[in-house]
Structure formats: structure tokens, C-alpha cells
């Protein structure tokens, strides 16, 4: 009898050990990253040395010693060797696929961004170019105020020089284009067409003939038709190139104001490209003379790929101060009585807000002028209680005009301001420029007022360049610290898309979207920031990018774990 019970105890012990061993193998992390300076972006615990990943999520954060002990026989170990790790950057405002429909980009003589080339320079450059390129070649180039505001350089003058080449000249900040007859034909715009709601077509004085000047929705609707003439394969190639570059820069999420292509083509391109980062596609519906086409995105797939989703809608309420289109409370310098203008009637704006209250789709509004911001805040306050709006998290894209006297109301209504640091670095607009007061940034004051705040590129996608801009603004009272800038690019952007429970910080339970950086962005001199790259980028617990170097950072289940200095905080400079 004793022998029987001893044998039973032995079998039970062996079985228990087998079960324990099996459970350990199943619950051990897939990755441990140790020996680094891990910025979690979590205010409760901003820095740790290590973290563990199982499946697509983070399962532990802590010291190197704590995390190293979690590794199992199949765990891949990443010795950070002091490198800095951050949550994957989330670009809260981009426009994809990148690039326009140009077959040939016009290189005008170098000029500052605001003024651009002169009319004579544009005409001379075009005249030389059309002699060397076959008829039908689409020509596109960037112009500034010298051409946009010159009534002597319009469709007729472009037709004289390039009658058989479609030509589109546009402002680099995206508000204002001039096109010739061939380009208008390709855009499906004729003299008999009324301008779409939200935009304008310039016309020859005392004539219905179009003069080639296109503004706001009149411009973007035409450019979208032009872009759609390129084959899907071209856009797929561009989107894949964007994805590869994004991973190299540590970007793991992008929020795309999708107005460059028609909805069905956008979804086809997204499906074919299979971007390896999270892609939020935000509808930017175009308009006709009868109104906004709210239904044009209704029939597209809401989840075209595993990492892409269609969610939200954006409208552009005004332009920018550069060309004088943003609606301001005070008149523009040197333009008595001119305050800018809204793209839409006030009642149309009210309808946009009413749709937001009754729809599940989040609302984004391009708002630049302080009068535009004040108007929308006032309409929101009239239409529903603050609590109803806070649940909606209405976004002000750019939000330049959310002046200090509007901060309290914006906070109460739950407004999320998505700022773009590159908009404030314009050498053509120095402190003495007449537009300087209008173009002053509001970054830190928004944060300190408690207004939800995120960063997006809307231009150069390099997050480190934009962090440099956000931390070196002209007004020292508005600059962000680097930690604040990174949080705005991660936690702020996640909140702006209702994803703060899943991403934005390197915390237990969050998605393992992260970047191991080539240098410590919290300590390097400011000029060095734009040169930062990711050495390893992870999306959902998968290594989707690893820089080519002497030896890979990740090692598959070595027999012994290399010990890291548990007090290490500074990475080795490379």
C-alpha cells in the first residue's frame, strides 16, 4: 500500500512539473527588450529599462533584471545596449498616397515659399520646358503669392506658352492653383460648370469663361480627378515607399485625410499596398454645385486590410493666413476690411455639427482662423450640452485660431487640437513680417489650459524634424519640452482617434507598437534631432523593420542571457 501511494505521488509530481513547464512555455514572452532607456509616455511611470511582449501586446515593463527573468526558451531577446525606445509615432494628420499626378515637375528658380517665383520666371521656365517635352506631358510646379495674386498670369497666358501640355501651378501650402485649358479638360472642368460648394472658379471679367484660378473645393475636386487618371500601380508604389520610409522613422500609425483619390480607388490602392503600419483612412468628401457628397464614402469597405480602417469625416472650413483665406476677427494687415472667409455658409457648418451629433463617425474640421474657431465653438455650445460634445471629441485640424480667450470653451467642449509644427517654420515670415502675429503658434498654452493636443505632419513626415520644430518655436513661451512633443505625437494622437486604450504608451496591455532609436532624442543637441532613425520598429508585437548593421538587435533564444547594467540610462552615442 505505501508503495502504491509513493508511486502515485511520483506520477502526480511528474505530471505537475510537465503542466508547469508547459504553462511556462505558453506564457513566456515572445520578446524581451532589456538594458535600455524606455520612454513609456505614461505620466505615472515615464521611464523604465525594459519591457516584455507576448503576441501583439506588452505584458510587462520594469527593470532589466525583472524583465530578463520572464524570458523562456523560445523568447527572442533584444539587448538594447542603452538605446532609447519610444512608443511608435502616430502621425495624426497626413495625406496619402503622397505625391500628385505630375508626369514632370517644374523646377522654377529658387524663391521663398510665400512669394514664390515671379510671373516672368514662370513663363520663361515653361517656355523652355515645353520645347523639350512631348505634347500631352502633364506639367506641375509650385508657385506663391506673386502668381496667385497676379491676374495677368492665368489660363490664357499659360495656353499661349503651352497649348498642348496640361499645366497646373499650385501653392505649396495647398490652397490655390492656376491651370491651363488642357489641365482643366483633364480635371473635367468646363466653362459651363458652376463651382462646387466650398470652392470657387475664377472667371474672366464680364464673361463666363474660366480664367484657370481654382480655390478650395474647386481646386481639390479637380486635382482628385487628375490624380485618378494615374494607374493604381503608381499609387501602390508610392504608398509602399511611404510605408517603408515610415517604419525607418519609427512611425507605426498614420491618420490619413483621404482626399487625393476617389474613395473606391483609395480602397483598391490600400488593399494592394498592404501598408505594414496602422492606417486610419478619414473620409474627405468632395462637393458639387449642389452640395457636399456625404454619401460618396458610404459603400466602401470599412476594414480594407488588417491594419487599415475607414473612420471619421473631415471638412475644410477656411483656408490659411498665407493667401488671406483664413477667417480672422481682425482685418488682414494691408487689406482694410478683409477678414478672410468661410468656405461654407454658416447653416452648412451647423449641418456638419448636427451630423456629428447623430452619427458614429468622428468629426474633423480644418480650422485656421480665430473667427472660424470662435464661430464653431459658439455653434456647438448652442446645439448641445458640453457633455454631449466631449463624447464626440471634435477635432480642430491645425487649430491655429484657437486663441487664448477660446481655450476654456474648447476644453469644456472636448475639442482636440491637432497641430502641425512645420507650419510655423517659414523663413519668409520672420518676426517683422506683417503676418507674424497671425501665424504665432499656440502649443504649450493649449496643453497648460487642458485642451487635448496632438501632433501631425501635414508636410514632412519625419517626426524628429517636427519635434525639433515644436521645441524651438519663435515664441519661447509656446515651445514644448521633448517629452511633451513625444507625448503629443503618441498619447495625444491615440486619444485623437479614440485609441488611447490600445496604444500611445508602452504600458502593460497596450499594443506593442514601438521604435528603438539610433540616438537619445531627449538629450541630443537640437540640430541633431532630424537625423534620428529607428533601428528596430515593431507593430503589434512583430518586428516590421530592422536597420542593417553589423549584428541584428534581436537574437533568437540564446542559451544564456547577456546581463545588462540595470542602472543604465544613457545610450551609447553612434
TrEMBL record:
Q: Does the keyword Signal apply?
A: yes
> Which residue ranges does the record assign to the Amidohydrolase domain?
78-545
Under SUPFAM superfamilies, the record lists:
Composite domain of metallo-dependent hydrolases, Metallo-dependent hydrolases
Region entry Disordered: which residue ranges? Answer: 551-574
A GO MF annotation of the entry reads: hydrolase activity, acting on carbon-nitrogen (but not peptide) bonds
Signal peptide residues are: 1-27
Q: Which Pfam families match?
A: Amidohydro_3
Which terms are listed as keywords in the entry?
A: Signal
Q: What is this protein called?
A: Amidohydrolase 3 domain-containing protein
